[in-house]
Amino acid sequence: MRTCRATAAGKLTVVLATLALLASGCGGGPSPQAWAASVCTALAPWRSEISRLTSSTDQQMTAQTTPAQAKENLVRLFAGAEQASETARRKVEQAGVPETEHGDEISAGFRSSLAKIRDAYGRARGTIDGLGTGEAGAFYDGVRAAVDTLNKEYDASALDTSQLNSEELKRAFDEVPECR
Questions:
Q1: Cβ atoms within 10 Å, residue 8
Q2: Which residues contact 121 (CB under 8 A, 6 or more apart)?
Q3: What does the DSSP 8-state code read for residue 25?
Q4: Closest by CA position to 31, among listed 45, 20, 23
Q5: N or C: which end of the chain has fewer CB within 10 A?
């Protein structure tokens, strides 16, 4: 009897293994190891970009720029974070559903978390884009309020991977090199 398991040797392997599974008639999604590798591969550049953008935002909040310059920079930064979050969400979606108990809901949880983060950045971008720049104090108060709201929404959207309902996936996230 054939078993359907993909190895965790990178994104190309996951894609090829998934295609092989479909071609061979075996149902199901990628193995927990392959799925975890794909998810971590999707999230690594996202984390780096969010970290870079957060640092840039902090610099903008303390830089000696005009409100108009700060607004332009912050809108661009939050648009970048929004796009990076959507790219990560799409890549997690492309990883499919892991072949494990509760795989559908676990995959949906990751995608939902990234969508909420994307939307939080989009709302922050929109709020800052709508601020007037005529009075510096009012502008920076508005920026602080937008960033405070963003931080709350970001925290509320976090996915607690320790609550995964799959021992196989917990083990996979601990073991695959892409997640280290």
A1: 24
A2: 78, 79, 81, 82, 85, 150
A3: T
A4: 20
A5: N
